[in-house]
Amino acid sequence: MNITETTQGLLKAKQDKNLTFEAIGKAIGRSEVWVAALIYGQASASSEECQKLLEILGIPESARDSYIQVLHKCPSKGGLITHFPPTDPLLNRFYEIMLVYGVPMKEIIHEKFGDGIMSAVDFTLKVEKDESKADEKRVNILMSGKFLPYKKW
Amino acid sequence: MNITETTQGLLKAKQDKNLTFEAIGKAIGRSEVWVAALIYGQASASSEECQKLLEILGIPESARDSYIQVLHKCPSKGGLITHFPPTDPLLNRFYEIMLVYGVPMKEIIHEKFGDGIMSAVDFTLKVEKDESKADEKRVNILMSGKFLPYKKW
Amino acid sequence: MNITETTQGLLKAKQDKNLTFEAIGKAIGRSEVWVAALIYGQASASSEECQKLLEILGIPESARDSYIQVLHKCPSKGGLITHFPPTDPLLNRFYEIMLVYGVPMKEIIHEKFGDGIMSAVDFTLKVEKDESKADEKRVNILMSGKFLPYKKW
Amino acid sequence: MNITETTQGLLKAKQDKNLTFEAIGKAIGRSEVWVAALIYGQASASSEECQKLLEILGIPESARDSYIQVLHKCPSKGGLITHFPPTDPLLNRFYEIMLVYGVPMKEIIHEKFGDGIMSAVDFTLKVEKDESKADEKRVNILMSGKFLPYKKW
Amino acid sequence: MNITETTQGLLKAKQDKNLTFEAIGKAIGRSEVWVAALIYGQASASSEECQKLLEILGIPESARDSYIQVLHKCPSKGGLITHFPPTDPLLNRFYEIMLVYGVPMKEIIHEKFGDGIMSAVDFTLKVEKDESKADEKRVNILMSGKFLPYKKW
Amino acid sequence: MNITETTQGLLKAKQDKNLTFEAIGKAIGRSEVWVAALIYGQASASSEECQKLLEILGIPESARDSYIQVLHKCPSKGGLITHFPPTDPLLNRFYEIMLVYGVPMKEIIHEKFGDGIMSAVDFTLKVEKDESKADEKRVNILMSGKFLPYKKW
Amino acid sequence: MNITETTQGLLKAKQDKNLTFEAIGKAIGRSEVWVAALIYGQASASSEECQKLLEILGIPESARDSYIQVLHKCPSKGGLITHFPPTDPLLNRFYEIMLVYGVPMKEIIHEKFGDGIMSAVDFTLKVEKDESKADEKRVNILMSGKFLPYKKW
Amino acid sequence: MNITETTQGLLKAKQDKNLTFEAIGKAIGRSEVWVAALIYGQASASSEECQKLLEILGIPESARDSYIQVLHKCPSKGGLITHFPPTDPLLNRFYEIMLVYGVPMKEIIHEKFGDGIMSAVDFTLKVEKDESKADEKRVNILMSGKFLPYKKW
Amino acid sequence: MNITETTQGLLKAKQDKNLTFEAIGKAIGRSEVWVAALIYGQASASSEECQKLLEILGIPESARDSYIQVLHKCPSKGGLITHFPPTDPLLNRFYEIMLVYGVPMKEIIHEKFGDGIMSAVDFTLKVEKDESKADEKRVNILMSGKFLPYKKW
Amino acid sequence: MNITETTQGLLKAKQDKNLTFEAIGKAIGRSEVWVAALIYGQASASSEECQKLLEILGIPESARDSYIQVLHKCPSKGGLITHFPPTDPLLNRFYEIMLVYGVPMKEIIHEKFGDGIMSAVDFTLKVEKDESKADEKRVNILMSGKFLPYKKW
After folding, report:
1. What does UniProt list as catalytic (chains A, B, C, D, E, F, G, H, I, J) (predicted)?
2. Would you name the residues of D annotated as active-site residues?
3. For residue G114, what pLDDT is reported?
4. Which 134-153 residues of chain I touch chain J by CB within 8 A?
């Protein structure tokens, strides 16, 4: 993984304070996935969000400005995974899902919505732990993207 | 896309009968996404499922055997998308989601479950149309995979 | 280039009738670029648009249904250029523009709009011939895409 | 992104002085896009342009020579985006536009101009913010390149 | 190979103490292959396993914490081999086995088990030295993975 | 997959006679994996082995010569999997095993044998079904290759 | 090489009439290299040039129209070499020249002309045979491209 | 570009002394292109050539030995351009010339010389500025390589 | 492998007449390796060599012309191996030799000859079977290429 | 090239003592090619060989241990050439030989030996200078690898 110094600093602070992304998310009022995306340099935050984040992480006042400059900026996204297809087995399963179920999803979306796409920008993502069954735990992932119809002109 | 003659025959029958994947799924008792995966050669069906599918699609008795041979076999999966990253904008958004939110998802999953992966085999996927808001339609995708912890030995 | 039989049939009819994309566009009430995109399998048309297109191209009634089935469907987009970077010098210049001016454009867009993207779906594109100068002709390309701000959740 | 120390120094000065590319462009008498291209190492400047740029950015006299040496030189262009297709969603949309609308643009250009290309060297590019509609902002991009006909010999 | 400082430190300690992976494995109560995977950053260990490992390797108390932080974390797996196919002849033979015997193995597994896969997560691997024959030594590799049947839904 | 007509003919005969690779292997006196490799064009057979194979598959005398010509020849091996890393999830797990456990295996082999490789030519491979546990089936793969020490000269 | 039927037809006619590219070039009034480029689908010809070409090649009147349609069209250029770097040793030397002498040429061009490029569109290329030395023949290649200075705006 | 410290030192000396490659070439008695190739690490020089080069560049006696060691050695050639196809527009035009005119050149060379290649080792290259026309400057490139016929044995 | 119809025809004739490359080579007066290269489309033959080859292979007079046209032409070389690195284990060993011993060979050649290369055009290659040892057979490959010193100019 | 500090240290000592690989080889009792392979990190040496090598290179006693640790270890082989196909013209000729003569060699080897490969591990390689002809020097390369027949099981 291709991780910046800013990300390393924030992750270390998170580890030192023994915080989960869930706890940070609650403190800021944002989803844990979005918080992880922010810390990994895949999203940008408002000044207020920056302050709350740095406070709960216990970053000293004197060091906050340099963090805010990075967190506040529109980042160059998508560069975390330096090899593709990803070599990490967990990440590789998402690639496999796309290979196997990508075209079926495309067909179902067109059948339900017409010609267009699911936005990956006006988009939210949740990860949930399903422990309802005795002998298995399930990872549930909920994606929600605005449907964008193709414009004609 | 790299589509077999079997898939073409089934898609043509579906179009001639003006059926949706949803309707076929209900007739077979399976999800519309799984049905699309089956028709696109990404899953295998039991004899009973094959018969129900071919019946609702109106495939004549005489032609069913050759379809069943293919639908019943364990396919070579994942070859539908011949260029990668996918050039189709709808499919490309799933690639983008992986690039931007892949590592955040990995971290959240490890935080909630420990070292392991979400299975893409003991796995289900739903596509839903959310029309609850007046000014936008949303594509909701629900993935559910069994958590597989890494074995030590 | 990777061209389907449908595209070949429509291009041959266009050539036989000696029509420009501009003329076809006017007859249908759509931009010439969108018409070219439709004929090259990169867009989908309404039934009415299909009928107008096939009429002006002089496709006989008997052959129209098979054309409409393809033109009406949501296509698998983006597969025309089979080698990338494109080997054709005209297409290669667009690749070069992205390499040289891509990051500057990104920075300017963020400076003017904040964190988000220019949509390539809610999007229009025009090609104009500028002959205002005596000793040179210029190709002017006008792109217009909706700004999509990144959602936080 | 692959950014040199010169670029980093200029971007930091720009941030410290809280200047936009637009403001710098006006001070130098050049377009904001060209100024961004210059700062990102994709263009070369005259001595006069260098001086104006360094002055408005507040670079001290003593440090200017080393900046001028770089800004004045013909750079090795096009190396900013180190992964291709670009992983950043905003940049990726330009790639997508080329995949979907590239061949249609090629056909329209040939129809209007004959055999040749749009120059990417005798070329200008503008980014405009269209706020004429109440419920959407649009990114407008205007490219203008000299048409170069293929020479026969 | 792409080796972290943690891995280098552990390998140096192993060399200084003249320990084999087999000896370390016995001390910890784990297989030598799993121990090698752990040291090379491909697995994560419990606190107890970490302590035992660092003790047998003679890592001083004061340095243990930073090792434990890394060994305890769920790593980003699969990044050791930076060129693929691997250039190292020993590793390349595994690639060759996959090319030549991969599809035959797939067919045999489906014949014996039905549609599904061999897990690489609920998985163990042993390397044995077979010296039963006078004129040759053989490398025996024993892989065992849980069969995961494809879920239908 | 990239399958020749010879392979298709043999697979069809196998299916028509409802034979498993195991049954064919027993009839010929060879392992089922080697038989699958032969049928998939990854190995060459003696005249006697060819005759036995064609007999059990019920290939008529008149058609045997053209099969023997192919089965008897030293094939161009390794071309079955046309995309790499393999897109099929079952095959992809072998790739993943190499990424995660490849370097650990290399280190263990060197520790046990010294500098050299496991041959993939003087090599055997078995696939076994382990049903000894009530709640899981396991795929066991046993590879055995001659150790080849690096020659010095 | 990736050769169209049009190219094959023209090359066969050239061979049947035992003509060199040089002889064809003289008959048309164009360089032999341009003629070869035209026949290989890398250039477009005027109606008059088409007629002269087809006449000297002895293409019968009845077959000319279909040739003219292709020769007259602006082709999709650059797709002849399907593998890159080229596997053919003669072509590979041009790739090698670029690797070894490309940057030196770039520096010399900038030193002589300033920031800009040599056009490959307003461009001519000659191949000459130098037999002035007794013990060697030399291939001389003369390229001439218009210098295009980078526009500022 | 991938430039060594030796190259950087020589280029800096060249800039400090305000020398062109042409001037250095004259002083050494070699072509400016060869001199640029030498400085960029693509050629090796005799001791005498090294001394002349270092003298005209004003490298102090004490530093000359380390330069001579590098300039005198047979270098690993061809590694300057780290991305291929080259992203720099000037270099990219040479790639484009190969794509469009490579096969025509091959055919012309075979027609004039028979089966063989133009050497890129027994090879010279000149860059000339043609200002004979009022309204355009042209870059002329003259390559000359020994013809090497294919040996039969 | 990417084999033309000409090659297939010649190989079939060779098999039907039960000839080895060695026998054909003796009949023509050329090395067996060169003969194999010719038949696989990697070399060109004189008219006399063509006649001798077709005679010994028993190609009927009426079919010879079309073979001669191909065998006599300068072929597009190097396209036999369609995947690279080669998937075939025998071919892959040559790739491995280059990876492991390529740089050592380069250094030894420079040490013995100075700056230059071994020609692959003024080049011969032999394959010999060494059976001098009781318990092993060895493949001996003898390559001989003219040394080409780098020209200075 | 990707060269370790160990290799750099040994090459510098070799240059300082003005030794050829041939001289070192004689002193150690090994071939010059193997010595070069060892120094470039592609082979491993016995303790005695290490001592002899370090002695003739004049490495001081105090520094020998760290060299021995590396030279004695089984290295990760094949990583010297970081770009493939190799950009260096001398190395590239070996790649070209494989492309042009690889399949002919495969066929000749199978004709002489049957189904199997030439080992690249039980393998030796010599480079010789042939000066027997007045007007040319030739590079002769002699490879000898054990033939390994494919095992059946």
Report:
1. 93, 96, 119
2. 93, 96, 119
3. 97
4. 136-147
